[in-house]
Amino acid sequence: MVATLRDVPARIVPAGTPITIPEGSFITITQSLGGNYTVTVNGNMARIDGTDADALGFEKQELVFTGNDGEDIQEAQVWQALETIFDPEIPVNVVSLGLIYSVVVDQQNKTVDIKMTLTAPGCGMGPVLVGDIEYRVAKVPNVKSVNVDLVFDPAWHRDMMSDEAKLETGMFY
Questions:
Q1: pLDDT at 23 exceeding the cut of 90
Q2: Is the pLDDT score of 41 beyond 60?
Q3: DSSP 28-95
Q4: Residues 6+ positions from 137 with CB-CB distance below 8 Å
Q5: What's the pLDDT at 172?
Q6: Is 68 helix (H, G, I), strand (E, B) or coil?
Q7: Coil, strand or helix: which one is 86?
Q8: Cα–Cα distance, 102 to 160 (Å, whole number)
Q9: How many CB atoms within 10 Å of residue 33?
Q10: Is residue 87 pLDDT above 90, yes or no?
Q11: Please, what is the Cα angle at 75 between 73 and 77, to 5 degrees?
């Protein structure tokens, strides 16, 4: 159990609804996976992003983007941010899992549209994972908004995973 050192944004599990946990709140950390924290607070489960770990007294995860001196969104930086997001139940990032189908950058409106799927259509953590993606990609320089479209066609299958992800999960056969 820890007390929050500052107000910290979080998302209710599994709905993904954004909340703010006030400074001085006592929370119980139930899981730390992929740099994020699943906690219980006031009887609810919530996710705190690793970039806000300092609010829990831990070293926060820094997202460092290089090579962007202009006003354009760099698609490579969007992919870099996506690679820091891990499935809430599997210690593999969403890109290596093959969950990201497309990234479209709209320079004029400063938006990023992402089409993604889940490993299973009934996955209850879908809204949390969508929230993780929206939160992290919004940290990419010059991004004003992020839209995530959760689709199930085509259906995800293990062949979409990178070889490294297959090894990590024991699905390389």
A1: yes
A2: yes
A3: EEEEEETTEEEEEETTEEEEE-GGGGGGGTSPPPP----S--SSSPPHHHHHHHHTT-B-SSSSSBTT
A4: 78, 81, 82, 112, 114, 143, 146
A5: 61
A6: coil
A7: strand
A8: 13
A9: 15
A10: no
A11: 85
Query: Can you tell me the mean pLDDT for 70-89?
Result: 90
| 33, 90 contact by CB (below 8 A) | no
- Mean pLDDT to the nearest integer, 98-122: 94
Chain center to CA of 147: 13
CA dihedral 104, 34, 66, 115 (to 10 degrees): 0
| pLDDT surpassing 60 at residue 72 | yes
* Contact status, residue 74 vs residue 139, Cβ threshold 8 Å: no
- Residue 125 tokens, joined: 């953590």
Q: What is the pTM of this model?
A: 0.84
Q: What share of the chain has pLDDT > 70, as a percent? A: 97
Tokens 């909340």 found at: 19
Q: Letter for the amino acid at 42?
A: N
- Cα dihedral sign, 58-26-135-128: positive
